[in-house]
What does this fold into?
Amino acid sequence: AQSVTQLDSQVPVFEEAPVELRCNYSSSVSVYLFWYVQYPNQGLQLLLKYLSGSTLVKGINGFEAEFNKSQTSFHMRKPSVHISDTAEYFCAVGPRTYKYIFGTGTRLKVLA
Amino acid sequence: AAGVIQSPRHLIKEKRETATLKCYPIPRHDTVYWYQQGPGQDPQFLISFYEKMQSDKGSIPDRFSAQQFSDYHSELNMSSLELGDSALYFCASSLDYRPPYGYTFGSGTRLTVV
It folds into this structure.
C-alpha cells in the first residue's frame, strides 16, 4: 500500500522568507510524486512532479522539490515567499495505475 | 488551452434529494477521475473511467453512481443525499491511463446538502 504524510498541517512564514513544506511517502514500488496547490474555493493546480531522472525538480511559481529515495521524502521549498503564496498545498503519490493518494495538506500562511 | 469543465460550480440540495454532477474532460482525454474533498480534508478518490469503462473504484458510497459517455464526458449521480455529502467534488482527466502525463483537475463542484 502507498501513503503520504505531510508533517505540518500549518506553516506560518513572513513575506520574503524561505519556506519548506515537508512530505514523506511510503511505497513498495516506484512512485511518481507531485505537489499541488489549492487556493480558496478553487481546484487543484499542479506545481511540480517527479517522474524519474534528476532528483531536484523545479516547478511553477518559484517552487522546487527534491526527491530523496533513501529518506522517502519529497520536500518542497521556495527561497522567498509572497503573500499570494498563501494557500493549501497537497503532496500526492501516484502509482502506475489510475489514482493519486493525497496527503492531508499543509496550509501555508504568508504574513506581511 | 482548454481545461476540465465541471458543472454546476455550486449546488444546494436538501437531504434525501438527488444530485448530478457533470465533468467535461480536456478534448482527446479518455480517462476521467472523480475525487471528493470534505471541509478541511484532503481529496479522496471516488472512481475513474477509461474509455467509457470503470477502471478503478475508491471510497464511493453505494448511493453514488457514475458513468462515462461516448463523448467522454462523465456524470456523477448522487442519491439519498446526506449532510455528510457536502463537499467539493473534483473531476480530473488524462490522456490514456498514465496519470503523470496530463492529469488535470477541474475547478470542482461545491455541493451543499441542507
About this structure: Chain A has a mean pLDDT of 89. The radius of gyration of chain A is 13 Å.
